[in-house]
Amino acid sequence: MVSLDDIREAHDRIRPHIRYTPVFTSRAIDELLGAKVTFKFESLQRGGSFKIRGALNAVLSLTDAAAELGVATHSSGNHGAALAIAAAIRGIPAYIVVPSNAPRVKRAAIEGYGGIVTECAPNVPAREAALDEVVRQTGAHFVPPYDDARIVAGQGTATVELLEQVPDIEQLWVPVGGGGLASGAAIAVRGIDPDVDVIAAEPSRADDAFRSLANGRIEPMRNPATIADGLRTPLGQINFDILSSHRVTVELASESAILAATRLILERMKLVVEPSGAVPLAALMETPPSRRAPRIGVIVSGGNVDLESLLYALKNAG
Amino acid sequence: MVSLDDIREAHDRIRPHIRYTPVFTSRAIDELLGAKVTFKFESLQRGGSFKIRGALNAVLSLTDAAAELGVATHSSGNHGAALAIAAAIRGIPAYIVVPSNAPRVKRAAIEGYGGIVTECAPNVPAREAALDEVVRQTGAHFVPPYDDARIVAGQGTATVELLEQVPDIEQLWVPVGGGGLASGAAIAVRGIDPDVDVIAAEPSRADDAFRSLANGRIEPMRNPATIADGLRTPLGQINFDILSSHRVTVELASESAILAATRLILERMKLVVEPSGAVPLAALMETPPSRRAPRIGVIVSGGNVDLESLLYALKNAG
User: Fold this and answer.
1) Checking DSSP bridges between strand A36-41 and strand A23-24, what pairing results, if any?
2) Do A4-49+148-316 and A52-142 have matching folds?
3) What local confidence, expressed as pLDDT, does residue B104 receive?
4) Among A106, A270, A273, A316, the residue to mutate for chain B (most B Cβ within 10 A)
5) pLDDT tens for residues A92-129?
6) What is the DSSP letter of A37?
7) How big is chain A by its Cα radius of gyration, in Å?
């Protein structure tokens, strides 16, 4: 599947091009939760999210022959921007299929990094047809957003860094959408410090990982009406397999908690976070204190947010 | 007046209680300005601004007898919060006179840190009367927000850190309001690396430092109708004397540039900044390229902003 060695190799491969993102703490949040919580801000990563880690690992792993005609993917956001950056670093084209309802700021980011955007209708058949057509026309190599061993290994590097920065945590909380970050975290933690609990945080309104792990099979995503747009994607197969076999539990977060957590990070920590990135804090706020360890690490996945939409949502949340 | 040794002593005094704040760069902003710009984020400082440095230096400098009955000040925002934190660290009360029109979030912060708030009408006579009354009733020691040698020495520590973090800059850009941060920066730079230019950035609509340095005497602040609320204060006497005698120049920023710079930092660097903290970047954007050095340091003074007000301003700025 994917091993800690794969993650360490990925780290060596991508290290010259990524940021070793900083960790911060907040007295206010520690008091609120009765725990010492250290946040690693992948919002400060190149491209504004952890996604560059996996995309770059995939792109730099390709042989010259495989890379020559470029890479392609479908993405409503961060993975597309990350793949565009990774392709630019390798000097090859990136073709990104983007649904017509993607946030303005995310599409602009993809194009700003040199990605070639193809728009499609916002549904799975249209997306797959558009991607197939792009790959057929260009010969580009498909780099999936999360259901891929190279991606999982790359995303695991964020957890390796966090465990270097804060070696004494008892729990690691990460968001789960497709499961790339969470499955990479699970492998890194089990390899480095098996006693640390890995908790994947998910919006209640996009709870397919919760249901999938409870039922022992991939459950479909149903109408993921959450503000955490990065977590509306269904759990991937390889990601499910890893989460299932690595003692990962899932905790859920309500929409109001996601907004409150986003606001807490903005107002108290002074860092811009997209709602998806605030989901672990939201889940922590809604989890009974008995399920929170004294020392907790959190990965804040990204900060790519349309400011107007975010502030509108925060305002309406009171 | 104030020497580099005073700043170094202040640093030793306050270091256990403050954050050594991080610096970040942005490729997008470097490309925009054609320069390598390193930002030091005092928004990530305790209390959300650099003000804790001066306030803590003043509070920790007091004899036990002078400190016993507490400290008092007037402040519409960051200095009040900083003094409340500093007093809490020393275990003494802090009495803060706050104008009735102060931003909600700043008053809440002062109270959150344990400061005892007295409200006054939003004008100088009312503020002075309220402060005199508080001092008379409590016996508290007055700690001014900027026109004070202990405050200047404390604020200078931010520049000492920046010069450690980025020793090769040719210019340092800092905001100027009352002048505590800018005068501390001038002394630190002249003592450590005299070749670095110090540029104080000021809103065009609150340009008393610009006029004061041009005319060689303190000019009154006239109707400071700027969104950069932290820079509406008039330049202090000691601060004027230091800026005048340490080769500091002033560059101005329009309101639209201040909003654009605030948005750039939020969207591209993913850090929450109050408009006052974005004024140096705004001035850089409006300065002819010939006046920008290849390597620039910027101190982002704070991140205490009412999110809804900021949204409203950014929206109306288009």
Assistant:
1) antiparallel
2) yes
3) 79
4) A270
5) 999 999 999 887 777 888 999 999 999 999 888 999 99
6) E
7) 18
